[in-house]
Amino acid sequence: MLHRHVFCRLRAVWGKAGRMHALLFLISFPFFLAVPSGLFASVTSEKVEKEQEEVRSHYSMSSFFNDARQFFGVRYRWGGETPQGFDCSGFVKFMYERVFSMRLPRTSIEMASIGRQVERCDLRPGDLVFFNTRGTRINHVGIFIGNDTFVHSSRSRGVTEDRLEDRYFSTRFVGAVRVLDDIDPDAPDCQTTSEKYDDSSQSS
User: Fold this and answer.
1) What is the fold, at CATH topology level, of the domain defined by 1-204?
2) In sequence order, which ranges of the chain are alpha helices (DSSP H)?
3) Residue in 5, 8, 58, 152 annotated catalytic
4) Is-catalytic flag, 21?
5) 63-81 pLDDT tens trace
6) Catalytic residue check, 8
7) Residue 144 β-bridge partners
8) Which of 118, 137, 158, 163 has the fewest Cβ atoms surrounding its Cβ within 10 A?
9) Residue 31 contacts by C-beta under 8 Å, 6 or more apart in sequence?
10) Would you kindly state where each structural domain of the chain is located, as residue ranges?
11) Catalytic choice (3, 21, 58, 140)
């Protein structure tokens, strides 16, 4: 009988203590959630936004590589800025609006006046490259895609790709600008297939 009495007393004490612990927990639980949740949400939100921005940047350049190839062979057309025909600045403007949702000026010389100038040795995929093919001023533009290669709309071949080191383009290269500062510098270079050639009739 003694052990039963002791057991009952212990159960009563434990029951009261348990109820007190439960009550304290219920009172403090909302406060526990409220205090760190704001900080946690803020940090998490900033981290997610940064990660999403990096993904968008990388995805956009990958999309550009894929989309540019779809238009290879589209004929050159003076004043053209649609898949029915492009001039050089029309192609650049079209691609930037399509892939990056960015509106650029209409002519190559206007495009050369925006963004940040970069040296040829510092070119990244997405940079605009400019040429003087007539001996007076900038009149041709393309988009650098890596591996010393750029895509553009050529008067003789339409949308194509060429290398900056080709004699024709290297002697007429006049500069480059970067208009996408948040672009991923580690984005993979586009694999190129162009052959060297001499096209003396480039213009924009």
Assistant:
1) endopeptidase fold (from Nostoc punctiforme) (3.90.1720)
2) 2-70, 88-100, 108-111, 167-170
3) 152
4) no
5) 788 888 899 999 999 999 9
6) no
7) 150
8) 137
9) none
10) 1-204
11) 140
